[in-house]
Amino acid sequence: MSAGPSPLEQFAIKRLVDIHIGGLDVSITNSSVFMLLAIALITIFLTLGMRQQAMVPGRWQSMVELSYEFVAKMVRDNVGSEGMRYFPFVFTLFMFILFCNLLGMVPFSFTVTSHIIVTFAMAIVVFLGVTIIGFIRHGTHFLKLFVPDGVPIFLLPLLVVIELLSYLTRPISLSVRLFANMMAGHTMLKVFGGFVVALGILAGWAPLAFVVALTGLEIGIAILQAYVFAILSCIYLNDAINLHH
Amino acid sequence: MSEGEPPTRLNDLDARLRRLRERTPSEDEADVGPGLPSRSAAGFAFRVGVELLAALMVGGGIGWLLDRWFGTLPLFLLIFFFLGAGAGLLNVFRAAKEMNRND
After folding, report:
1. Which residues on chain B place their C-beta less than 8 Å from a C-beta of chain A?
2. pLDDT averaged per 10 residues, chain A (length 245)
3. What's the complex ipTM?
4. B79 exposure class (CB count in 10 Å sphere: 0-12, 13-18, 19+)
5. Is A235 in contact with A78 (CB distance < 8 Å)?
6. Are residues A145 and A163 in contact, defined by beta-carbon separation less than 8 angstroms?
C-alpha cells in the first residue's frame, strides 16, 4: 500500500563491521558507532572547553561549567552533600544520555536511546548500584525501606509485597520513560514528514509547519529526558543513602 | 580614563564574589527534597502512564515466572497482577505527592 519507507526504518540496527568472537556477536553497528561518537563529542566538549581555564570563562567554557554546576546542584539538592561521592557517575549518565538524545536530532543520524535495551541497561546499572550501595551502607536496615510505618500487623505482609514490587518497578519505568519518549517523538517526526511529501505542494504546508514545531519540542524533550533520568537516579540514590521515601 | 576603571574590573572580582556568596545562603545544607520537572501536565500524565504500565508488567512477569516454576498457571499470575496494580497506584500516589510539593 505505502510506497515510501516505513517510519520505523530509522530504528533498524545495521551491522557495519562484522566481528564474531567465540559465538558472540560483537559487530560494530550503527548504534555502537553513535555511542562512540557521543563519547568522543563529550570528551571534546569537556576537555577543549576547559583548555584555557580562564577566570572569566568564554562561551564554550561557560557551557562546560554550566553543565557541571547543573548536575552538581542536582546531586546536592536531591541526595545531600554526601551524595557528591557519586557525582561522577550521575554526571557521566546525564552527559551520555543528553548527547545521545541530541545526536539523534541530527538528520540521518541514529538515536541510541530509542532502543529499550540501551535504556534498560543503564537503568539496571542504576538500580543494582543503588541497591548495593544501600545494603553496604545500612546492611539489613536497608530492608526497612519496604516496611511502611504505622500499619496494622495483618496488613503488613500485603504492603511489604506491594512496596517490594514498587521498588522492582523502578528500572522498568526509568527505561521505558526514556525509550518511549525518544521512539514516539522520532516516529511522529517521520510520519508527519511523510505527510509533507504525500500532500505535495498544495496542502503540504500544514504538516511542514507542524514538523518544524515538533522538532523544537523534540529538542526540548531530548534535554528534559536526560534531566529526568539523572534526577530520578539521584532520588533513588537518596532513598538508599538517607533511607526515606 | 578620567572616570576611572569600569566597575567590572577583574581585580576586585574576588571581593565581589565573596560579598555575593555571603548574601546568598550556601547551598550545602539545602534541604533534601526531590524536584522533578513535572511542571507540564502532559509530562505528568505520561509519567503516570509509564508508572502504571511498568508496575503491571513487573507484577505480571513475576506472577508468570512463579507459575512456571510451580506449574499453577493462572494462580500467581492473577495474584501478582493485582499486587502490581497496587504497586503502580502507590507509585502514582507518590509521584502526585511529589508534584504537589513542587507547586
Report:
1. 10, 13, 27-28, 30, 32-37, 43, 46-47, 50-51, 53-55, 57-59, 62, 80, 83-84, 86-88, 90-91, 94
2. 68 86 85 94 92 84 92 91 91 95 91 93 95 91 84 87 91 92 91 88 88 92 92 90 75
3. 0.73
4. middle
5. yes
6. yes
